[in-house]
Every structure is written in C-alpha cells, then in structure tokens.
Design goal:
β1 (456-461) and β2 form a beta hairpin. The chain contains 28 helices and two strands. It is globular. α3 (38-46) packs antiparallel against α4 and α20 (317-329) packs parallel to α22. The protein is mostly helical.
Length: 500
C-alpha cells in the first residue's frame, strides 16, 4: 500500500496526475483491489478535472460494495450534472447499491437510456427484484430476455432458493451448462432450508462433473455435515482441502471444520484442524471452546480460554456464550460466575440476554433453583422461553414440582402448540408419582390438539446419511427392518433372562 502511495506521489511530481492511463490504474487499485483504501481513492477522484465514464463506474462499483452504498447514487447524480455519458456498466454497478424503491427509478432510467436489453443490466435487475420479494417480476425479466448466460440462470436460481428450493431446483435442472456458482447457489439454498441430504447429493454430482468447489460451496457442505453428523463426508472434505490448499484455508473454513468435527463427535480431528491452523483468530478459538463445551470438557475449555487470552486474542460475545455454556454443562458454578463478572470488568463486553441465560442454566443445573429464580428477577432483560426452559428442565431433574408447574404454565401460555412442553410436564408429574395430574395433562393435550413431534435419527453408512422417523413406513425395507429389530429385542430379552 505504501509503495502505491509513493507511486502516486511520483505521478503528481511528474505532472501526470490528470493522465487517464495513470488515473485508471490508481483508482482501480485503491477503490477495488484494496477496498479499505476507498477514502484515498475518493481523494484522488475529487481532484480529477474531468473524470471519465470508466473512472465514475469504478468508483460507483466500489461504493456499491462498501458500507456507504448511498455514495454510489451521489456519484451517479454527479455524472448527470456533468453530462457524462453512461454505458452498459454504469447501471449494473448502480443497481447493486440501491433499495427496491430507488432500484425501480434506476430501472426506468436504464429503459430511458436504452440499456434495458443489455445482458448485464438484465441480470442485475433479476437480482434486484428477486432479492426484494418481487420474484415474479424477476422471472418476467428472465423470460423476456433474448439471450441468457450462466449468470442469468444462476441469479434467478439464487433468488428462487430464498423462497422455494423446489422452484430453484426446477430451474437448475433446466440448465444446460452449470458453473460452480450455480451449484453453490443451489447447495446453499438446500442448506438454508435444512435439506442437508439434498445438499450432499448435489455436491456429489458437482464432484462427478469434475467442477472444483469454491469456498462458498465448501462452507455450505461443512454446515450440512455438521447437521447430519456426516463424519465420513466431513473427513473427505478436510482431506480434499489439505490436498488442494495444503492447510492454507480461509479462517472461516477452518472455524467451520473445527465446529463440524466436534459436532460429529470427532474430538481428535477437531483438535488436529485447530493445531494445524497457521493463524488462530477469535473464530477458531471460539469454535474450539464451543466444541469442548459441547462434550462437557470443562477444565479443558477453561485452559483453552486462558491460552487464547494469553496469546493476545481478545474474546468476543460469542466466545463468552460458549465459555459460560461449557461451565454450565460441567457444573463449574464458581468459575462460570467469575467469567460472567469478567466480561464487563476485564474485557469491556456488555452481557446480552444469552449470557444471562447461560448463568441461569449454570445455577439451576447445579440444583441452585432458588438462586436461579432470584437471578432471573434481577436481570436487566425479560426472561425468554430459552431461560424458562432451562429452569423447567432443572425442575424435572430435581423434581421441584412447585416451581416446575409455574414455569410450564408460563411456557404453555407462550407456546400452546409446543408438544415438548407438555411432554416435559408429563415427565415431571410421572417421576413425582402424581398420576392424577398426568391424566389431566393428557386430556389438556387432546383438547388443544397438541401432539409430540415424532422422533428422528440419522445413521451414516458408506458416506450416505439415512434418516429414520418414528412411524414412517414409506421406505421399501421398513417392514423388513421392523422384523429384524423385533428379533433383536427378543434375543436381548432371552439373553437377559438367561443371566438372571
């Protein structure tokens, strides 16, 4: 960066600061190649006597991708005032910077200037309308196009995927030539809609087509593996990345891999990814602490936190959520309270409701239900369903019927459709030997038409995840599996009787 600024100074001393060739290179370098230097690019721009259309477009493009997109509109107005010619790049960049209302105005101006039949403008209009709940308008623009490139299809699929993955897949299947961006849009759509199996199936198709996945695709697939517990696929992804990038991963991918391996139960692999990371930012440390918390490794997560702080990495709000949650699961009450106190005092982080929720969980898991209630009363936030849920679960564990009933009724009033709450109340009464109350709850469930959601389990075999739902008989081998399971149960019972 300093070298570029020295070059700029040299251009000025040589009297070449108004030469188009040099200005193009400087503006592009400071505004686009190094977006953090956009302010410096603006200083150069403001001293140009007659900026060309290219330079205007470059600045509009940079502002459209920045935290100040309104500046792009200001430059567009300046172009009009100075009578600068517009071209087919002006409108696509501008449309990325505007809201729907302004976008419709720009659409009219593009039409007025004769650019609405331009491919780049049309693709930008599809994205503008499709990403702002105007999917029918986006589809009409798509259908009216005389020529569509891969970007046209991909843009529409991306927009459809936010509303209906079925509609997105219909368009995807109609494509003749698909790019990695197209596959990534469809895979990301599946993951966002929690259709993880479909995401993995499409990823296999991408690899079979000999298309190299990009970082966005990899991130989506790692997320799918985390949710499915697809450890074999996760291991393959990690091996693939090691082969392709030699452990030089993007920090986000490293963080996602650590999180995925922990969630899939492979602590060893998660630690390996963490140790191999060239740089350990707060994301990697937080994923490590969160994973250790998930597995109830309280002492290890505290050691990891102290090591992180000692290395000069400052924890953030998410780090403390993981840390406090881990202390709660390991029943490290004193340590958890000390960390909660240190958030503001030592690290300057204001606790949010999720941190207060972790402290409630910390107290009630240890059986300190009265202290948990007192903490809730003096919180600066109104307790939400998650906090009351933590208290209710503790009441079940410690058979505190008095508090449990009050909390359950509060939760039912807030979520009368939630069968899990009724089942929890049934469990509390059953474990406390209150059969009359059990029958009352069952009758209440019938009256409100509330049913417990069927249980679901997943198993991974040869890299393929199979899902089983209670009561589902749609699989061809369902009857055969039930017979085999029945035989296994009988064998276990006979073996049990033979030993006692």
């Amino acid at each position: 960066m300093q070298e570029a600024k020295k070059l700029h100074a040299h251009i000025i001393t040589a009297g070449l600061q108004q030469q188009e060739l040099y200005l193009r290179k400087l503006i592009t370098f400071f505004a686009v190649t190094n977006p953090s230097s956009l302010d410096h690019a603006r200083l150069i721009f403001d001293r140009i006597e007659n900026p060309s259309t290219f330079i205007y477009n470059t600045m509009i493009r940079a502002y459209a991708a920045s935290s100040s997109p309104h500046q792009a509109l200001d430059l567009y107005s300046q172009m009009h005032q100075h009578g600068q010619l517009l071209d087919n790049y002006t409108f696509p960049f501008l449309l990325k910077a505007v809201t729907l209302d302004k976008g419709e105005e720009i659409h009219c101006q593009a039409l007025k200037h004769g650019f609405c039949s331009n491919l780049f403008v049309q693709n930008s209009l599809i994205y503008l309308y499709g990403s702002n709940c105007r999917i029918e308008t986006a589809r009409k623009i798509f259908d009216d196009m005389s020529y569509r490139d891969t970007a046209s299809w991909t843009t529409l699929i991306t927009c459809y995927a936010n509303y209906s993955v079925e509609a997105a897949r219909y368009m995807f299947d109609r494509m003749h030539a698909r790019s990695v961006v197209t596959y990534s849009a469809m895979i990301t759509g599946y993951v966002r809609k929690n259709q993880f199996k479909e995401a993995l199936e499409l990823f296999r198709e991408l690899m079979e087509a000999d298309i190299e996945p990009n970082d966005a695709t990899i991130m989506s697939i790692i997320s799918a593996c985390s949710n499915l517990g697809a450890l074999d696929v996760g291991r393959w992804i990690y091996s693939y990345l090691q082969c392709k990038k030699e452990d030089q991963f993007d920090s986000r991918i490293t963080t996602a891999l650590i999180d995925m391996f922990f969630k899939c139960g492979s602590i060893k692999k998660a630690l390996q990814v963490f140790e191999n990371a060239k740089q350990k930012h707060v994301g990697e440390w937080t994923a490590m602490i969160s994973g250790l918390a998930l597995h109830g490794l309280g002492n290890e997560l505290m050691e990891a936190f102290e090591e992180m702080v000692g290395s000069g990495v400052k924890p953030n709000s998410v780090t403390f959520t993981a840390l406090l949650s881990g202390c709660a699961h390991s029943r490290l009450v004193d340590e958890g309270l000390q960390y909660f106190d240190a958030m503001k005092r030592k690290f300057g982080i204001d606790p949010k409701i999720e941190h207060f929720g972790c402290v409630v969980d910390l107290l009630v898991r240890a059986g300190l239900i009265d202290q948990g209630l007192k903490f809730i009363r003096y919180m600066p936030f109104k307790a939400n369903a998650a906090i009351w849920g933590a208290l209710f679960n503790a009441c079940r564990v410690y058979k505190n019927v008095e508090v449990g009933e009050i909390v359950a009724r509060w939760l039912i009033r807030d979520e009368p459709w939630n069968g899990a709450i009724y089942m929890g109340l049934l469990g509390l009464y059953t474990e406390s030997g209150m059969s009359n109350e059990v029958e009352k709850v069952k009758e209440e469930m019938k009256e409100v038409g509330c049913r417990k959601s069927p249980g679901c389990s997943l198993i991974e075999v040869d890299g393929i995840c199979y899902e089983f739902v209670v009561g589902d008989k749609s699989r061809p081998c369902a009857i055969e599996m039930c017979i085999i399971l029945g035989k296994m149960v009988l064998e276990f019972k006979e073996e049990y009787r033979s030993h006692f």
